[in-house]
Amino acid sequence: TKSYLPRVCTVPHQDCNNLAFGWCVVIALGDFDPEEGGHFVLHDLGIVIEFPPGACLLIPSACLWHSNIPIRKNDTRASITFYAAGNLFRFIDNEFQNEPDLAKMNADLYQQRQEEKDTHWRKGLELYSKINDLILQDL
């Protein structure tokens, strides 16, 4: 998605249409002083990040509440965001069909997919590295 000039600013939100455990890329654009505004806020983590023009962040935007703060009146800011839509992954898992069509064509698989929704996020969470995975072991 693109957010246009002159002064893009977002309210705290989660991107609920993104793949729950997927990554979102946010690129800041414009002409603004990153010390005075445009900071990226990760509300769940209590983190505020200077986010200058040209900078790029990767976050799991469906899971984390995030926003950015306003910039000064005469500054400009835009952004470009890349994300993985959850519907695309569901479409593939549903044998390249949307859910209503899958329900009509294969009721058993549709029911199985509905039951998997309760635990699907756990499988995604397991894909993330844990601190022990990042610590160098004896080589």
Commentary on this structure:
This protein has 139 residues and is α+β, with helices and mostly antiparallel strands. It folds into two domains: 81 residues, Sandwich (Jelly Rolls); 40 residues, no CATH class. Helices cover 28% and strands 24% of the residues. It has four helices and eight strands. A hairpin with a 4-residue loop joins strand 4 and strand 5. Helix 2 crosses helix 3. The longest helix has 20 residues. The model has no long low-confidence stretch (mean pLDDT 90).
Cα shape: globular
Low-confidence residue ranges: none
CATH topology of the largest domain: Jelly Rolls
Compute the gyration radius: what is it? 19 Å
Treating each run of at least 4 consecutive H or I residues as one helix, how many helices? Answer: 4
Number of domains: 2
Helix-and-strand structural type = alpha+beta
Name the assembly state: single chain
What's the name of the CATH homologous superfamily of the largest domain?
Jelly Rolls
Main beta-sheet strand count, sense and barrel state: 4 strands, antiparallel
**For the record, what CATH class of the largest domain applies?**
Mainly Beta
- The H/E string reads EEEEEEEEHHHH
Count the beta strands: 8
Question: Approximately how much helix is present in the residues?
Answer: 25-40%
Strand content: 15-25%
Mean pLDDT: 90
